[in-house]
Amino acid sequence: MLQALQKTHRHVCDTTVGALKRQYMSLSIDAGGDMLEHIRPTRLMLVELECYKVSLSDAEKKNNFLQSLGPDWNGYIGALEACGSMEELLIKAAAGARRRSTQAQR
Questions:
Q1: How far apart are CA 47 and CA 68, in angstroms?
Q2: What does the pLDDT average to over 38-55?
Q3: Rounded to whole angstroms, how far apart are CA atoms 66 and 25?
Q4: Calpha distance 42→64 (Å, rounded)
Q5: Do residues 45 and 23 touch, judged by C-beta distance below 8 A?
Q6: 92 touches 83 (CB < 8 A)
Q7: CB neighbourhood size of 43 (10 A)
Q8: How far is the CA of 6 from the CAs of 9, 15, 20, in angstroms?
Q9: Pfam families recorded for this chain (predicted)?
C-alpha cells in the first residue's frame, strides 16, 4: 500500500513539476509590456521550482529570461548578458525598466 501511495504521489509531483517548468520556459513579455510585471512571475516560478528541488543553473535561468524579452528590449540585452548572476540580471532589468518609465514621463 505504501508503495502504491508513493508511486501515485511521485507521478502527481512529476506532472506538476513538468507543467511548472513548461510554464516557466514559456514566460514572455509582449511589446510595450511592463518589465516589473514580467520579473514578478519569473521570481515566483523560480522559487516554486526550487521548492520542488528542481535545480536550474544561473546560465539556464539567465538564458530563459533573455529569450523571454520582446523586441522592445533588444538594445538592452547585451547589458543584461554581462550580469554575473540571475539575481543581478533581474535587479538590472528592474532598474532599466524604472529608468525607461521615468524617461517616458518627461
A1: 18
A2: 93
A3: 11
A4: 10
A5: yes
A6: yes
A7: 12
A8: 5, 14, 21
A9: Retrotran_gag_2
Residues 49-73 have pLDDT tens digits of: 998 888 899 999 999 999 999 888 8
The CA distance from 56 to 92, in Å, is 20
73-106 pLDDT, tens per residue?
Answer: 888 899 999 999 999 999 999 999 899 888 877 6
Decide which of 96 and 32 is more confident: 96
**What's CA 89's distance to the chain center, in Å?**
11
Q: Secondary structure of the chain in the HEC alphabet?
A: CHHHHHHHHHHHHHHHHHHHHHHHHCCCCCCCCCHHHHHHHHHHHHHHHHHCCCCCCHHHHHHHHHHHCCHHHHHHHHHHHCCCCHHHHHHHHHHHHHHHHHHHHC
